[in-house]
Amino acid sequence: MNLKNTIKKIENNAPLDFGSIFSRAIELFKKVWVQGFITLLLTFICMLPFYVLIYIPFIAAGITDPEMLQQEEMPTSVVIGMLTILPVFLMGVLTITLALMAAFYRICRNKDLNENENDDYLYYFKNGRLRKVIILAAIYFGLTVIGMAACVVGLFYLIVPLSLIPVFLAFNEDLTPMEMVKASFSLGNKNWLVIFGLLIIMGIVAELGFILCFIGVFFTAMLAKIPVYYIYKDGVGFLENDEVSVQE
């Protein structure tokens, strides 16, 4: 489905129903909470090398000059080195997050429609798909910088369309990265208030995992992401003969 048809479907579909999406997201979470936990765990594991990367200048300085570790402030050279690596760190984190979240939404669709597909968490790291994810991460990063430059208001507005990007990556592989972003803005602008409300309320509900001695939040955190699946399903929809489950 090309961008023109995608936007046309968004425009023709009825406005999103907050209550319906909220209740269905809770029900789906009961089916995918294990997969959500695995996705979160994989995200942390895949991010570890990038966390090590950003501290390389600090580690190297500590090895060459052990007395530096006793200083209250880091040397300017170390700060510059870490700031130089920071964009690489952020791009790596965004790429991993987008790829794993898109894979999670594919799993949500399989569970929601009772399809017998394997839970492929690394789907977007294979068969040349990672290149598109990296480009999408770069656009995401650029929009975030623009939003921050526009002060809080800009970033506040971007919360909605940016949250929709992974689900368009999951179900619109025929679109280019820029087209996915345009479609995300189209759906987000039409239903901004409802989507924002869902993200905030479901995020608060997901944080209730802290009650379970903190560790529970790792099992409930992905609940905050599930409404986006239904936002796409109701706001765009699936074709009966679509090819979301692309053959490996």
Structure, described:
- The chain is an all-alpha fold.
- The protein has 10 helices and no strands.
- The chain has helices at residues 3-12, 18-54, 56-64, 76-112, 129-149, 151-171, 177-190, 192-206, 217-220, 226-235.
- α6 (151-171) crosses α7.
- The model is unreliable at 241-248 (pLDDT under 50).
Distance between the termini: 20 Å
Instruction: Describe the largest sheet.
Output: none
Q: What is the 3D shape?
A: globular
Low-confidence stretches: 241-248
Beta percentage is under 5%
**Which structural category fits the helices and strands?**
mainly alpha
- Number of beta-strand segments: 0
Continuous helix count: 10
What's the pLDDT, averaged over the residues?
A: 87
Q: What is the element string, with H for helices and E for strands? A: HHHHHHHHHH
Helix content: over 70%
Alpha-carbon Rg, integer: 20 Å
Topology summary:
Layout: H1 3-12, H2 18-54, H3 56-64, H4 76-112, H5 129-149, H6 151-171, H7 177-190, H8 192-206, H9 217-220, H10 226-235
